[in-house]
Amino acid sequence: MLSTTNSGVQGLTAPRIIAVLLLMICGGLSVQGQTIFGRISGTVKDSNGGAIPNANVTITNLATNIARTVTTNDEGFYTATNLPVGNYSLAAERTGFKHATQSGIAVTADARLTVDITLEPGQVTETVQITGVTGETVNTTSRRRRASMAIALTETFLLLMAVSTWTAGRMPRN
Length: 174
Known about the structure:
5-stranded mixed sheet; 2 helices
């Protein structure tokens, strides 16, 4: 009596291939989310709460003295991305308003800080110093979301493996 043996190719069923591809994609997602830069964004408003468009916001790294200037949009919103980790000061100015500065802003890796500034009416030569910066860090939320996504993808992978094993056992063999 002749015995036939299966080659290892039968184990490569479509569900298993899909499961392996899914695992490879999931592994790439966790690497993609890591960064060494941070972001500062916020809104520049007047003392009545109205948005100030076209205000210049200068963000200065206190260790290197490198400054980046951005301009607010029509809603008074500004954003500065790809800021290296460090301590920063922020200055905002617009014609017809006093110059306002804020310091002690600590940017960490993958930080997303919100720093809103209020400009008071007056001459640009006058300066308003703001102390006690409390920027909100959205970073912890994004990390929790990534962790939840990783758990869901792992559960999906395990389910696919179980289905592929069950399907492989039920397939007719030639």
